[in-house]
Amino acid sequence: MGSAKESARLSTRTVQWVVYALFRCIEGVLWLLPLIVVWYIGRVLGSVAYVLAGKYRRLALHNLHIAFGREKSPAELKVLAYEHFKSLFANVLCGFKLPLMSEAAICRHVRSEGIERAQAAYDHGKRPLLNLVLHASCWEILTQVPSMYVRGHKAGAIYQPLHNPWLNALVLRRREKLGYALFDRQAGFNAPMKFMREAGQVGVLVDQHAGDHGLWCPFFDRLASTTTIAALMAIRTDAVVLPMMVYNDGPARWWLVCAPEVKADESQPNADGLTLAINAAVEKLIREQPASWFWVHNRWKLPKPRFLLAEYRRGVAFPTGYDMSRLQPFELLIRSPNWLGDACMAFPMVRAIKRGRPDMKITVLGPDKLEELWLSMPEVSRYIGKPAKEGLFAVAGRIKATGVKFDAAVFCTNSTRSTLEIWLAGVPRRVGVKGSFRSKLLNQIIKGGPAKGSKEHHAHRYLRIAKGIGADIDQPGLWEAGAAPVSTDGIIRVGVCAGAEYGPAKRWPLERFAAVVNQISAQHSQFRWQLVGAPGEKEMGEKLSAMLQAPHENFVGKTRLSELIAKLRGCQLLLTNDTGTMHLAAALGIPTVSIFGSTCPIETGPLGDRHTVIQHKIECSPCFQRECPFGHYNCMQLVTPEEVAQAVLKTSGVES
User: Fold this and answer.
1) Could you write out the three-class secondary structure of 145-176?
2) Whole-angstrom distance between the N-terminal and C-terminal Cα of the chain?
3) Where is the domain boundary, 71, 100, 129?
4) pLDDT above 60 (res 656)
5) When you count CB atoms within 10 A of the terminal residue's CB, does the N or C end of the chain come out lower?
6) Backbone angles phi, psi at 495, to 5 degrees
7) pTM
8) Residue 270 sits in the same domain as residue 128
9) pLDDT tens digits, 485-498
């Protein structure tokens, strides 16, 4: 085992030495060439890379679309991306050439502006100076010409060690030769801050994605994780914060700009406020010459696994007076369950997700029949209807036809087909629970769940998905949209849903529903009954209506989903089988009395203290059959009209 490790270590060292040797050979060739020739060679290589490097070309176009998509056409963005590739390769290649030249020779290719600001920082009490450094143009200029912008301060630099020890040693030797005090980033920031307090000047990179430790704030009006290191260092050392920007200024020529001092807004004088100001300054500098910045870096990277931001330590911050209408949305696609009841049980998940980040915009994809349900939720912005039996590519085409670039998708369904539809639509992050074949199509699988043999309510399973992407699932107000209406006229309106689309095994006999209604109305005249049900249950509704001797209205099969929602919102109670309408009422805050037989209330019952479930379990229940193999004899027959009537009266607050 030890021999294998030693062999692998030697192999790695050999590769690193070969890379170092190859780099020095390239430097030897560059040493022979004039700088202007190196520049043009780089631009040719950039043109070739734009064509061949599809992954990075797409990344650059994606980033440019975020930054300038509201200002420039797609054709203009392509021109900008092409120019960026040529600029990038020219500047990187020149960056390899510059350390082989004298500082005086390099200075002949660079003009400067605003350097008096650095001088002023030194003249006014030798205040520490923190330079904000960007990956723009030939940023190697900043390390090669300290005489152009260091005025009295001691020059220091924070560096990230290279994995290749020979290359790392070469870079350190060259930096030290130019007089820099060097600080290893991995060793922390106490040493560079001590250096700054002693009239030091240090540059800090501030334009990269900062991962889980950054502050989420708008950058080109889209939330991005931003480093707070520069702000914290500046505040703790009372440093002057000056951005340093390098621009292209012609072939093999550069323009070094020391921009005005960055200060936090007076209403946000802390590290968050200064970070916001730094971000705004960086954006302004990039806008001056967009092609020069490093667009092939994933600045707006989607964090994994928690792309919701509620649990991140530094959280989200906005500048004072920021116009929230400018904030670019985080576009999330949620694949709805196919059944009404299951969709209603996903409501708490959707509410938790919506609250997970301020830029969240939710689109739901699901069957046509559920469109009105989902659009009744204020958290849902749009709905993509999916006709029954439509093909995979047709559904993917519907998603693309919206013109929305979805950032992620969350699946409430478990099927491989639904996952394929969204995979074909090109949604980059796909989140769901593990399935048989579809696991290969998910790039974030939600783990956990109940122990083997245990049951989990569908709503809790959906919330587990929300938690897996960073939602706070313990916050109040997730379960109900509001309370049931209070009757002001003394009338108690009760909805009755005696059907069940799933099958007859879930239906309590019609004559027993009729017995409950007739019995209660005979004793309590304030009750009014509204029969509701699915479009295919119209005949059932007419049969039940004929059995009733109490004041009622029959809406079974006569309402659209939006109209059903309106009817339920006018009820103080719903008497029902285990149906989608039961879950809809629960989601609307309407108390229910629910009769269960073949199904399991632990998994699909209404949740909350205001709901009553009546079930008499027998040896074969829950069987989850659509039709009872024993003639619908026991589990439903054991539920009596008397006990259901008592539950209705108790839930409605009427003494029996």
Assistant:
1) CHHHCCCCCEEEEEECCCCCHHHHHHHHHHHH
2) 80
3) 100
4) no
5) N
6) -85, 145
7) 0.87
8) yes
9) 667 788 999 999 99
